[in-house]
Amino acid sequence: MYKSYEAVRRASEQFCAPLAIEDYGLQAAPETSPPKWHLAHTSWFFETFLLSEFLSGYQSPWPEYAYLFNSYYNGIGEQFPRPRRGLLSRPGLEQVHAYRRWVDDRMRELLADDGHADYPQVLQRTRLGIHHEQQHQELFFTDLKYSFSCNPTNPVYQECKEPAYRAEETSLPAAWQEFAGCDFTLGYQGEGFCFDNELPPHRVLLQPFVLASRPVTNADYLAFVEAGAYQQPEWWLADGWAELQQQGWRNPLYWRQQDGEWFEYTLHGLQPLRLHAPVTHVSAYEADAFARWSGCRLPSEAEWEYAARTCPVAGQFVETGIYHPVAIAGTAGIQGMFGSVWEWTSSSYAAYPGFSAAAGAVGEYNGKFMCNQLVLRGGSCVSSQTHLRSSYRNFFYPRDRWQFSGIRLARDADRCVK
After folding, report:
1. CATH 1.20.120 placement within the chain
2. pTM score, two decimals?
3. Which of 10, 93, 371, 393 is least surrounded by Cβ atoms within 10 Å, i.e. has the fewest?
């Protein structure tokens, strides 16, 4: 177990390696967090939910970190205000790395004690901590990208690997995959790790439906933009139209038009808009409007999971070192269900029938957010491949755009598509 723990911990630090010291405190919006805070918070998680609970006689050398790096666990205590995390110049980066080493040394000690009375719970909680850190690795990329995008010099996080990024010329043609109606068991079924919001498995009735063979591309979405759909309220939910008006949306988050040509800001710098790549950084409001304009709809999470169970967890993940979606390559059938972009669904993020959160503060991990958010599925180009499965439920507010969120179209089996 410690090898898996250590690999994830080292990955977080490796992702930070291209940063300048000035980058570690960047926080351009209240919903983002600085890289240094992510490094400290993930250590706080292991310290709080494992070392303090299971390591005999444990005392933290930095008790103030319980306040500084607690994200949202009210059962633990008060938290430093989220919108002000960028003001935490102290502790410095060197001290945060010392904190990580301290926690790692004690975790090694705890995991080595397989005779511990609560060892099965230690292992279960460690797996949760590992997946928690993988979630924050993804947030590291999305938060950093947003902060970098506010700099008019278009900072490059890392040069892109060749030739995979620039060689992309075509994408799979759009096609439709039919699925018969069925009585389907939704949710995680197995013996491995899953989050509590994937449980319990339960039966749902699916009507016949049709799912697009690939995510919506930039070319597809550019037609929506150029058709003036951002100025046409008939395609938009009321809340979406209000948000569009308030925020001045006219295109996806990082699209920029210069001298009549479209570009897109990426972690590899400002790039020409790649028409065959999946569109990304769109809100659920934009995804829903595009689907309506196309004569389609977004899939439910049950439809998405049913289709994804036939697909291997394969695609473009953070392990590729290409931190922006590339064109989906492959054969006929459903492609790109995992990696590249998270796919918005029409499903509200709510508890499954029979859901019960864990006792204590750790039960705040997922359950208390089951309100006013929508489910996304599949992972993205900055997700770890080992972190994903067909039952995985991500969730964000429908207005959110700074994640690598995209679109896959669906429709009822008896509906025509324009």
Report:
1. 2-149
2. 0.96
3. 371
